[in-house]
Amino acid sequence: MVPLSWYLIVAAALFCLGLYGVLARRNSVAILMGIELMLNAVILNLVAFWRYLEPARMSGQVFAVMVFAVAAAEAAVGLALIISLYRLKRTVVADEADLLRG
Amino acid sequence: MVNLGNFFYTLGMWLQGLLMRAGLSESGARGVFSALVAALLPLLALLTAVPLIWLERKWIARLQDRMGPNRVGPFGLLQVFADMIKIFTKEDITPLGADRVVFALAPVLAVAGVLGLWAVIPFAANAFGVDLNVGVLYLVAVGTLSTLAIMLAGWSANNKYALLGAFRTVAQMISYEVPLVLSLLVPVLLSGSLGLNGIVGAQREVWFVFSAPLAALLFLIASQAEVSRAPFDLLEAESEIVAGFNIEYSGMKFGFFFVGEFLHSFTMGLLGATLFLGGWTGPGVEAFPALGAVYLILKGTFVYFIFVWARATFPRIRIDQMLDFNWKLLTPLGLFLIPLLAVVNRGLSESSLWLRNAALLGANVLLAVLVLIILGMRGRSARMRAASTVAPAPAGSRR
Amino acid sequence: MTIAQVIFAVISAVVLVSAVLVVASRNIVHAALWLILSLFGVAALFAVLEAGFIAVVQVVIYVGAIATLIIFAIMLTRREMREAGQQTHRWWPLPALLGMALFAGLAWLLVSLPGTGATPPALAGDDPVLLLGQALLSPEQYMLPFEVASVLLLAALVGAIVVAGDTR
To answer: Which residues of C touch B323 (CB under 8 A)?
Structure first.
């Protein structure tokens, strides 16, 4: 069978890729995609821990469902912000949203 | 006791035995058998599209007092094959500036999204691709694929009209997914099972269309919109946006969308039959389980005929009417229906089957009457307003 | 390697390669498509982990809703997206280095951690979907967080409409 550490390593790789995406991309939609990757890595970890350590109790899956809810909320609000920003500044590049810089 | 009539199960066991005698291990035989089913089921599904297209064209023609196809072969039966030859030999055009990979991927996804649904439909007592314990959710998940396909088709073609069609798709399919899911939840609620087999099993005595007719109606309307056929075909409204998302497609790629649409409609009919009309249950099924497949196909074709009937009868609705109808009528109706049925079902869970179902039916009728009264009041006030100003009737005054 | 390990390796390769393409593609719609494939792969991993409900919900929510939202946002803000241009800012090696360092650290930690090589215990006889439903809705377990999550979703819905809606 597949050992638990393999899942954790895949999740860690996914998380790091998402982190790179969030920090390096200029396009705010792409940044949002990076966040989705990171959240998925977290869910993968939660489900893997549930399966390997506590299959009798559903805490792992319950927290995965909670992360889903938070991710959906985050995506909705994030994309609403991006669309609003685009209306205001005609750009979705995060660096160009510098209204507060004066 | 040997269940001789258990045709599909016996057939499967016999095939696996044959493979094992041919020198495969047990798990190997099961693997080969699963692969065989996985290959045959989509093939079967695609083949049903051939008689289906003929049937629908004839049926629509009769509804509109026409003859329908009658030139190629007896009763025009070979018309579909003639069309197929035409579509196969057409030039396959990819427009300039199109995103080639995505453009080619979209038709495949459109058909895959439909074929995926066939995996969980129980055709008879022991004949199904797989009995998922989350079958109903799986239906919703696979359904999102066809939305994605249409969106990609619209985007990749590098054409304004295609993109407009794609926008309308997003608006329509995502909105109508809400009442669709709400209506799917009702059989889940009444049967206490998320799997399609469990839902069929719970309808041995009473079909859910009798205990929850409003949910069946919701399913009918929402799935018609999900398949996006008339009156919900505004994503390919010929008179407004030429042909919508598939404007740039030709040849076999267009054929994929075409077949996918017909098949999707029929698959929705099968699902409606499974969820609300008792699926494969019927008289004599215990003795001859193979009869179940016949019952399911008959019931599915009946639901499909209702879809086609609606398609032939109603004019296309406007986009604002489409959204109003969903968000101001169907979704609230579904949201009220589920708690109401849950309370009735739970409150009478100890009483007899017939009393419980009669109460469920009564609750449905009550809600329907309430909705009709409210709609009537709203319609009257809208008419009054329209009469006092010269403006056209505001949206939402349909009915 | 056993069959299970091969399946795991193939799915993980799909997930990771498409995740790399998500953060590397210049065309933002392609990035969204790769994101869908990657999340689909994660759903397959959930299925391998025998969490069927989570797998299907992953497809419904991520592949269906969120990916659709993202593609929709891309289409609405289209002008910017078509010309490829520079997709990363000029300090991009810094986050790349950070990501690799973090991954190296985590991988080292995970490999050396005791007890992570174990095979999973068998699932209990009960239907996991049933157990999950009971866990989510029974007051002594997770009913309060569940309700709070639904309030959060409602708030996000209202907030998104207020932020993105036309303020005419």
So the answer is: none
Amino acid in position A68: F
Domain of residue A57 covers 27-92
**Cβ count near B62 (within 10 Å):** 12
Put simply, the answer to whether C52 touches B132 (Cβ < 8 Å) is yes
Q: Which of A17, A50, A90 sits opposite C23 (nearest CB)?
A: A17
Give buried/exposed letters for C23-43 (b at 16+ CB in 10 A, else e): bbbeebbbbbbbbbbbbbbbb
- Contact (CB, 8 A) for A8 and A48: yes
Note the pLDDT tens digit of each residue in C59-99: 888 877 776 777 777 766 665 545 556 666 777 788 888 88
Which of A3, A72, A86 lies at the smallest CB-CB distance from C118? A3
Rounded-to-integer distance, Cα B254 and Cα B88, Å: 10
* Residues facing A93 on adjacent strands: A27
Paired with C17 in beta bridges are: none
Peptide bond into B231 cis (omega under 30): yes
Q: Domain tally for chain B?
A: 1
**pTM, 2 dp:** 0.83
Residues of chain A positioned with their CB less than 8 A from the CB of C32: 29, 33
* Beta carbons of A16 and C100 less than 8 Å apart: yes
B191: containing domain: 90-321
DSSP H/E element including C96: helix C93-112
Q: Chains contacting C with at least 3 CB pairs below 8 Å?
A: A, B
The interface predicted TM-score (ipTM) is 0.86
Domains of chain C and any CATH numbers: 1-80 (1.20.120.1200), 120-168 (no CATH)
Task: Please state, in angstroms and rounded to a whole number, the distance separating the CA atoms of residues B35 and B198.
Answer: 25
Are C and B close enough to touch, i.e. 3+ CB pairs under 8 angstroms? Answer: yes
